[in-house]
Amino acid sequence: MENGQIRKALSGFYYVYNDGRTIRGRGRGVFRNQGVTPLVGDFVDYEVDGDNDAVIMGIHERKNELVRPPIANVDQALLVFSMKEPDFSPRLLDRFLTVIESYGVDPIICLTKADLLDDGDTGRLRPYIDYYSGIGYPVIETRIGDADLAGRLQPFLEGKTTVLTGQSGVGKSTLLNSLMPELELKTDEISDALGRGRHTTRHVELIEYGGGLVADTPGFSSLDFDHLEKEDLPDCFIEFAQLSDQCKFRGCLHLKEPKCAVKAAVESGAAARFRYDDYVLFMQEIIDRKPRYSS
Question: Is 244 annotated as a binding residue?
Fold first, then answer.
């Protein structure tokens, strides 16, 4: 029995990396019977079957697992958002941050196309950028064709498994190509008719880069909160989570409860009104969700 890590899943095969060698494998039939699917990022036990084939016999306990994209054991997410074309959307970024925080994955915000901004754009966006940085999120600002991007990303990627995701049409594949030209990933221009980019990445793969692993994925195809309960949401807004201990009531949802530290911080300007408005919107979405019944 040997062990390794699934680095790619394609057409029913799993490509397992072990000490400089990649071997193609299939999962045991028992996985299907148990409703278990091996995922890219899984650490697995396998038995060699032939010259370059293997049977995956067991899956180690996962640190976390994402559903869409299907990947396990992720340390952090590089969230790629443009400042312009398409325009920066704080609400969409907050939605991504909420989903990523809920999985226990650390976000890094990468803002592209800084060179397209005029003075008015800069004045509008700077308070948002400063706020996200101020509450503890790493924020990297880039320009089109940024030659120094690889060097600035290197400290964040080393020793980590990073998933790349974010806003449609912002150039995630272009960013990966700039880091690793040998990939020659397919990229498309933004569709003027739709105002968004077309999906160009079709499967999930972990690629060695910068002393770590970067996942090239189709990105998050679902940004709903079906896996979240209303009690989970306060912990997904990191600055609210830090204030929760100061609320009068344990388990405060920061809605209508008296002596709520989060609402007080919003009123005083210590916490951002736009973040609280998004929090309330997301909370209502969770509350309005149809009840789920176990079969």
Answer: no
